[in-house]
Amino acid sequence: MKLLGGMPLIQYTIESARQSELLDTILVSTDCPEIAAFVNCFDRITAPFVRPAHIATDHTPMIEVVIHALNSAERNLYRFEYVLLLQPTCPFRKPGMIDETIRHVVQQKADSLMTMRRIPDPHNPFWSYTLQNDKLQHVVPDVNRPTRRQDLTATYHRDGEIYIARTSLIRAGEITGGKIAGWLNDNPFEINIDTPADWMRAETLFNQWKDQTKNIFSY
Q1: Which of the 8 DSSP states describes residue 124?
Q2: pTM here?
Q3: At the top level of its lineage, which domain of life is listed (predicted)?
Q4: Distance CA 62, CA 51 (A)
Q5: What is the rounded distance in angstroms from the CA atom of residue 49 to the CA atom of residue 52?
Q6: Nearest in space to 190 (alpha carbons), one of 94, 122, 73, 123
Q7: How far, in Å, CA of 88 to CA of 189, rounded?
Q8: CA distance 187 to 68
Q9: CA angle 69-97-89, nearest 5°?
């Protein structure tokens, strides 16, 4: 297990989940016996099944992992209305945000939710292009395109920190769908670790994040 700030990467997500007062059951899906043994050292959280090798590759769609976890959990007599997905590659969640998103999806009577951030105006889809055969094509075609920044419609992107979906949606093969609620994330320590450069940035962010959460999390 790779260490970030002296702690296994997955532990940041474990600690965030354990702080929640609204999560009924906290399960970890892994194909790694070492990670499973580590997870089972914590209260309120367990790794009760092993993820099969065929859905434990770098190219496995996340929905397949979630469906397997849901089916495995329900074979152990768990029953859920919603699944909340936390990916360990987003280690620096804001304290309390898990319960805030749960309350929001319930209040909105939504089928799914994702945390999101506003797309900076220079990268707004109305001003973006694809390049095909040396020819530029508008990402958003055939609209009255604003020419001034002040006239742009605000647009948002998912940031990967939290997804919530009804179990019926998961069984239909979707993590987001139906009535989708958005939760605007103002966490200043946004990071989704996917490359060595992301890891280096996470190491830089760690001390700042730790200073803000030292009274909540133990290290």
Answers
A1: -
A2: 0.91
A3: Bacteria
A4: 12
A5: 9
A6: 94
A7: 14
A8: 30
A9: 50
Identify the CATH class of 3-140+153-213: alpha beta
Domain edges within the chain:
3-140+153-213
Structure tokens at 29: 């899906």
Residue 159 in contact with residue 190, Cβ under 8 Å? yes
One pLDDT digit (tens) per residue for the chain, 219 residues: 889 999 999 999 999 999 999 999 999 999 999 999 999 999 999 998 889 999 999 899 999 999 999 999 988 767 899 999 999 999 999 989 999 999 999 999 999 999 999 999 999 999 999 999 999 999 988 788 888 988 899 999 999 999 999 999 999 999 999 999 999 999 999 999 999 999 999 999 998 888 877 655 555
Amino acid in the structure at residue 129 = Y
DSSP 8-state assignment for residue 22: S
Helix residue spans in 113-195 (DSSP H): 167-171
Cα distance from N-terminal residue to C-terminal residue, the chain:
16
Tokens of 149: 């920044």
Please provide the size of the chain in residues. Answer: 219
Please identify which residue in the block is written with the tokens 């469906």: 67
Provide the 10 A C-beta neighbour count for residue 163. Answer: 20
In sequence order, the 6+-apart residues with CB closer than 8 A to the CB of 198 are: 191, 192
- Nearest to residue 5, comparing CAs of 218, 165, 187, 192? 218
* Rounded alpha-carbon distances, angstroms, from residue 19 to 23, 64, 207, 218: 9, 27, 20, 11
